[in-house]
Amino acid sequence: MRPQLGTERLMTSEQQRRAQALEYHLAGSTYQELRILCGYQSTSSAYRAVQKALDELGEPVSVEEVRADAKRALHRIDAMRKGVWGKARKGDLKAIETVLKLDERRSKILAKETAAKAAQSVESEGAAVYDLQRRLEERRLSSS
């Protein structure tokens, strides 16, 4: 059975390309890799495409989701690293390269998680400052 026209939102080829870029990004590809895989002119074009695809999803990512994703990714990286560590210790150059790439990816994930924690802290402090200002204003108004 064919869907009726207008009942289903059709994606343009650019939307499909952005969706593909987002899939690669979520799988851990760098923006340089996305540039090549998806045919973008530059890494900044690939970055903008991923950001637009995220915006099109419409739901902001919470700090808790970032932490959960980071935790899962770190566990995957640790498992992969354990798998190649023995070969790397024996001098296998490909295994050494893999370990270094996994360590680099792990560092990037930890940096993102740290940034998410900092954002949550700033958000909490901002709410506390706003609450304090509101209470001071209420006190000032009640004493007048």
Count of folded domains: 2
- Indicate the overall shape: flat
Give me the number of helical elements.
5
Give the termini separation.
72 Å
Q: Residue-averaged pLDDT, rounded?
A: 80
Q: What radius of gyration results from the CA coordinates?
A: 23 Å
Number of strands: 0
The largest pleated sheet is described as: none
Percentage of residues in strands: under 5%
Helix and strand arrangement:
Layout: H1 13-26, H2 31-38, H3 43-57, H4 63-89, H5 93-143
Key terms for this structure?
80% helix; flat; 144 residues; mainly alpha; disordered N terminus; 2 domains
Task: Give a verbal description of the structure.
This protein is mainly alpha-helical. The chain has helices spanning 13-26, 31-38, 43-57, 63-89, 93-143. Helix content is 80%, strand content 0%. The protein has five helices and no strands. The chain is flat, with a radius of gyration of 23 Å. Residues 1-8 have low confidence and may be disordered.
What's the short version?
This protein is an all-alpha fold and 144 residues long. The protein has helices at 13-26, 31-38, 43-57, 63-89, 93-143.
